Amino acid sequence: MFGSTIYAQTVVLAAFMGGLAIGNRVFGSWAGRLQQPVRAYGQLEIIIGIYAFCFPMFDQLADRIFVAVGGGIAQHTGLLLALKGTLTLAENCEPVIRASQWFTNWNRNVLNDPRVHLWHEDARTVLKLDPQLYDVIIAEPSNPWTVGIGSVFSREFYQISASRLKPGGIMAQWFHVYEMHDGIVELVLRTFSSVFPYVEIWDPGDNDIVILGSQQPWPTGPEVFRQSFGFTGVRSDLNAIGIQSPEALLARQLASQRTAFAIAGDGPVQSDLFPVLEYAAPRAFYIGINAKVLEHFDERTRQQSVAPPVKLAILHSLTMADVRSVFSLYSTVNEELGNSLLRNEAGMNVPCVFETNAPPAMAKNTDKSDATLSQAVSALQTGNLKQAEQLAILALQQNPTNTQAQYIGRIVERERQSH
Fold this sequence. Notes:
Elements: H1 6-31, H2 37-53, H3 56-59, E1 64-68, H4 78-81, E2 86-90, H5 94-99, H6 104-107, E3 116-119, H7 123-129, E4 134-139, H8 155-163, E5 165-176, H9 182-195, E6 198-205, E7 208-214, H10 222-229, H11 232-240, H12 246-249, E8 253-255, H13 276-287, H14 309-317, H15 320-328, H16 335-342, H17 369-381, H18 385-398, H19 403-418
Parallel strand pairs: 1-2, 1-4, 2-3, 4-5
Antiparallel strand pairs: 5-7, 6-7, 6-8
Helix pairs in contact: 8-9, 17-18, 17-19, 18-19
């Protein structure tokens, strides 16, 4: 923006010093737990790239992928390891592009790969102006409290992205729960799923999530992941973050296509005309709490009763050695799950799919609608969708504010429509 001038040096120095202060504020409370924080950040970037890769169109060697550059690490993983077509990168910050050379050990010298096309422009502009269609789009912008970042979390941005995806294409969106409150996480999920009705939520580690979405269902699960494990480089990267098998990768899925769309109900969405996120995120950053809403909708803990039965069977089959490998290097965005795996006092009463003697439990409700809701879930699991719908409606009549009943009702409605 300023070029290589004294003004640029002044701006960079000011930004650097400000970044130190902000970084201390944002990460100081938990970074001390990491022995190698820079390595941890790099591994997070790898995880984001891998999650987007481990799906069928990428297993068939997707020929066109779009991603923003950022640190240049996410796109070095499976995207380059098996890509036979092209990878389009968008980055509007020249210093970031120049700095990429310092990360070649991590990004496999991505900018010098002949299959890669770099746009020195922001991702939204590239997607809007270039008619090229892609198999997958990965969005990993900065934190939403940064000025202007709300435009790449808006419904209009997702609509543009959807128009640039091939049929069956997948959108991958990074987000975080640190310095956020529940309402903001729900806002992001609601906005995303308003354009991409089929959604999965993945858990790459402390404080982060990866949201996958498409306008139609896509095949998923260990048999699909197994094709990705066939690539030596992909398998090596997964092994480096503790994932030793396709089945173990499923342990990182927080919510499947069956339930993820139902987490955020009715409410506001982020749009260009009403940029709610632009104002809510800075306030949440100042307050400094972590969002907890996803803990109530995790299929590995409180929502085992509505998780796909095939998924539950696979997770039950994992040994504790498998589970420890998955979560030892990078914990989980679900603090309840983390406490359960650590077997500390805070996790004693948390239902956990990896502990076969732990009973499944639904979200924390104690009103009279609970019994009705339990019957609705049983009917859903046995395939009696009409009865499940009637019981979910009854539970909502008994308690219209019961968020678990609203959640179950949305799942039942989707399944009735698909049958």
